[in-house]
């Protein structure tokens, strides 16, 4: 089957980064040195080649794209200074934009001025919206949900989630379809028999449990970092704390909401620090702040060659996370402050606005990796599983 | 002018045998162990020491060493030797060395005979020591027998004309002409076309320095105009050559307004720099003939003429280009098997030019191997970094080109670098990177007797050590008429030919080997049989004592011996290898088949 090349892919892709990639002459040193490349996932050379030649569909639907953790060893060993590590990041940005059919991701990545205007505009919109519907500021207790009605936040959140879910499911569905076609994975191969179910569940456990929650390959990948980082700032730990922190906060929020539904505790009621949900939220919040802060420091310092050309959109995700986390702690402090501080209400408004934006931008920023990476890893897990069975 | 010896009788073997006994020194070399490991060198020395005429018989470890050379000189002088035989390696390696030993000891250098007991004996028979030893004894005895009958010979001296003919007015010929004038040799340039400059004169920017070929040629022509020592003829051809080395008479035919004028000139040397033809693809070869499929020279002219801002083909804007490399080069056996050497870099350079005309043009290079060697590698890097995509195909899976119904062209290629997937690339222009082919050499072969290789290019004597000389003395070749090469390499060869011309012509005379054929006029009956046997036209028929006999021009004769066996009267002898010498040598070898004495 002949593949028709897209002459514009490489120039289009370079709007997302990878300025040096034309220097690549396909020697394959990057693939040879990559601690994560194996016979089922040959990268970065193969993916660079797809981009150079112009095979767009093959590139964006490569599960290999998402098996890379960006350690950058390839970049340090590239004889042509083509920066394959940076290319992998760029190709992921390109894939996110490709599967975002709204076009917003592309604008955020490639049009820094308009992208920043959108980001600030969205935050301002949410802030103004909540300011417009705000209620009174009680001085007796910090009655946050009197200030911004609980139902408004709830309804706005639901609406946003529906919008985000539509775009996310479309993107994830398309990626899954494309990989499945490439790997010739059919519905019956996934769900057609007991064995098929077994394979599917094992691959799902591999993708979500072992890799997404457990960060197994990320941990191994970091073994090759040069120079060897102390544990507290190893890339995998920073990432894992961010992830676990985020999930912890999500869980705490869900539990809080659940307890409110069950009438155990009304949301916003002050509780002691050892109260399980509060404790979980505090610990998770600290983990998130630790991870995100390190991420920002490293991105700022440009310590690794493959990470030295961040796009504003990459920053956007980190900044939103960080501000959401920080304002969360400030609200926590305000909740227990005496007398009730007036600024607590405004910080809360900011917190809610930022949180809304964070949710809204999920499919359009680096945040989107939380859905694309597990999908790719699921198919990667299927291949690995098939090999084990064959062996 | 040449001073051929007048024909005179050659002393025959019977006359030599009446001379007093010869005093010959024989040296059998160990060559470290190259010879002595397989041949009993001491036994050979023993066997030779009592041969008639042998005065000295030695077996040095290395005959070519300085010390042994001095010992030989001392022996020649001290023992009054009049013949020297060294049994060692091939004469190709050390004949000159030992001839010089003879010269330094005031012995005629042609009284030296080299016997090859290494390549032709020890190396050939490593498992038969006694047989190899026996063979060595036979070979050395034969050498001694030949030496016994040797006559002193002197090199032939010919006067030379300080003028050189340059055939071809391309960049190589023009630069060579200036080089000749610089060293004080008049130059005459003959160019078949109506204008000087050749291929390079038609080019715009050329690699590696981006200088315009046309401007460089114009600079050379300007320089030539300033010099009185250089004459140029355009619309002219070399149509005849006679005479001998150092004194050739050449005939130039000037094509003038429908009538031809013939011009005769005396020249000392001839430099052939006739260049190449571009390979012309067959109809349908990689789509040649389809609108939008062009050859490299056509493309180069297009790019050179392109205005800044856009490249157009027949009025249409070119947005993308595919280059198919190695068209007409590196073909299968029977075709052009050679690499044309310049085309990778020329194409890459042209594609960089395209980038300056319109950087948005997408360029695909479909190649087998990129041979942008040396510093040209930097151009290759620059082209990749400028966004050119290189696609590697296998020798046995060449790309195909087809016209699209929607307009434009589709190039289909299996890319080894993309998991050997078949890619279809839509482009506006396909450039067939055509290589060099030899120009039809028949005219020059007829006139100059130049040797042509199996690939159709002219052959030099030695690719490394004598890179511009041909087997025809005083006739040199330079540039792409020798083999495909770049402008710089061609000009280098032209200047090498200048240096070689200077070496031949600047002394005013030249010495030639006296090992040439000579006619015995007493025996010659003038049958004329030998006349047609000479590949160098060295034999002519002359009047001698009222009858016609054959005569050999020693300056033209190459000493090949082709005429000797043709003569039914044995009237021709090859000096240094006379019939008598060869017969004596053979007889010694035949006699040695049954050893005269037991071999140790």
Number of strand segments of chain A: 1
- Determine the N-to-C terminus distance of chain A: 30 Å
Broad shape of chain A: globular
CATH class of the largest domain in chain B: Alpha Beta
The outline of chain B comes out as elongated
The biggest sheet of chain A, with number of strands, parallel, antiparallel or mixed sense and barrel status, is: none
Proportion of beta-strand residues of chain B: 25-35%
Low-confidence stretches of chain B: 1-17
Sequence of secondary-structure elements of chain A: EHHHHHHHHHHHHHHHHHH
Helix content of chain B: 25-40%
Helical element count of chain A?
Answer: 18
Q: What labels describe this entry?
A:
heterodimer; A: about 400 residues; about 65% helix; about 0% strand; globular; B: about 600 residues; alpha/beta; Rossmann fold; FAD/NAD(P)-binding domain; 4 domains; 5-stranded parallel sheet; about 30% helix; about 25% strand; disordered N terminus
Question: Which helices and strands occur, and which strands form pairs?
Answer:
The complex is a heterodimer of chains A (391) and B (600).
Chain A: E1 3-4, H1 9-13, H2 29-33, H3 45-53, H4 56-60, H5 73-77, H6 84-99, H7 104-110, H8 112-132, H9 144-147, H10 150-183, H11 187-191, H12 194-213, H13 216-221, H14 235-261, H15 276-301, H16 312-335, H17 343-360, H18 369-390
Helix pairs in contact in A: 3-6, 6-7, 7-8, 8-17, 10-17, 10-18, 12-18, 14-15, 15-16, 16-17
Chain B: H1 13-17, E1 24-28, H2 41-49, E2 54-58, H3 66-78, E3 83-88, H4 91-104, E4 112-116, H5 118-122, H6 129-148, E5 156-159, E6 163-167, H7 171-182, E7 186-191, H8 213-225, E8 230-234, E9 236-244, E10 247-256, E11 259-267, E12 269-272, E13 276-278, E14 293-295, H9 296-305, E15 312-313, E16 316-317, E17 320-327, H10 343-357, E18 362-367, H11 376-385, E19 389-392, E20 400-403, E21 409-415, E22 421-427, E23 429-434, E24 436-438, H12 442-448, E25 475-477, H13 487-505, E26 509-512, E27 517-519, E28 539-544, E29 547-552, E30 572-574, H14 579-592
Parallel strand pairs in B: 1-2, 1-3, 3-4, 6-7, 6-12, 7-8, 12-25, 14-23, 17-18, 17-23, 18-19
Antiparallel strand pairs in B: 5-26, 9-10, 10-11, 13-24, 15-16, 20-21, 21-22, 27-30, 28-29
